[in-house]
Amino acid sequence: MQTTEYKVVVIGDTEVGKSTFVKRLYYNLNNLFTSIKTLGVDVLPVELHGNMGKIRLNMWDCGGHYRGLAEGYYTGSNGAIIFKKSGNNNHLQFENTLPESVKKFYITDYDMNNEEFSVNEYKHQLYNWIMG
Questions:
Q1: CA–CA dist 98, 71 (Å, integer)
Q2: Rounded to an integer, what distance in angstroms lies between the CA atom of residue 82 and that of residue 52?
Q3: Taking the complete model, does pTM exceed 0.85, yes or no?
């Protein structure tokens, strides 16, 4: 049986933990840390399991100050994971360019050294979000 796939863009300002978050999900590691800036976009598939079976999120990790296709990266997206900081509204420059039909999942003040949820908890939340 073919796995259902969803395109999810991961957006937000530079150096807020987007790449670390995606790689933690991909490698299933809670203590992974990456400091290499994303130039353009990196795409990684993340498999999730839940009550309705297995799905795959093709996670488009967009660099904070990306150029390239810019909003073109959002074409065909089913969802967007938006990283934001509670002290500013920089995330709006990314969020406001999304098509209205795209589901939004917010991560506020992601702390790469002391994350709020484990990888498995985030996977569970993402599964329920995209399937809901």
A1: 8
A2: 25
A3: yes
Q: Alpha-carbon distance 13 to 47, whole Å?
A: 25
What is the span of the domain harbouring residue 22? 4-131
- d(CA 123, CA 125) in angstroms, rounded, equals 5
pLDDT tens for the chain, residues 1 to 132: 799 999 999 998 888 889 999 999 999 988 877 667 787 789 999 999 999 999 999 999 988 765 555 667 788 999 999 999 988 998 888 888 888 899 999 999 998 777 789 999 999 999 999 999
The candidate with the shortest Cα–Cα distance to 117, out of 102, 129, 131, is 129
The CATH number that applies at residue 114 is: 3.40.50.300
